[in-house]
Amino acid sequence: MPGAKWFEGARLNYAENALLNDQEEKTAIFFRSEHIRQQEVSWKELKEKVASVAYSLRKLGVKSGDRVVAYMPNIPEAVIAFLATVSIGAIWSSCSPDFGARSVIDRFKQIEPVVLLAVDGYQYNGKVYDKTPVILQLKQELVSVKHTVLVPYIEKRVWK
Length: 160
Known about the structure:
Blueprint lengths: L13 H5 L8 E5 L7 E4 H17 L7 E5 L4 H12 L3 E5 L5 H9 L5 E5 L1 E4 L2 E4 L1 H10 L5 E5 L9
Parallel strand pairs: 3-4, 3-5, 5-8
Antiparallel strand pairs: 1-2, 6-7
Helix pairs in contact: 2-3, 4-5
């Protein structure tokens, strides 16, 4: 529709709406992987962790419109970081750690992130892949990144 303008001036916070659940003790996230047999995050815990990470991002200077990127697999920490990022109006982008350094750099460099969140590695088919050399390369080549946060994942063991 040429010239149409939709919802001008409207603002919506995705994280605020995603966390409106009032079932505090019910499970919000069920997670399992090769080395984490089972992990559950309640709605209450999710809200608390999102608030904590959002506070930490603000302390690092992240503000609305800034970009935060993650070099992480689909783990609860990635969901928490995503919700925390968008809760303050920052822009989120992510890549799986099975991507090589060049493809991650090409993807992230164009959006000029100010914070990089990354896991130390991941496990696939019983083999552990250490990603710390790639993280060092990302830190070197992503000149806009002011802060890097390393999330221990291959060292994390949760057995229930």
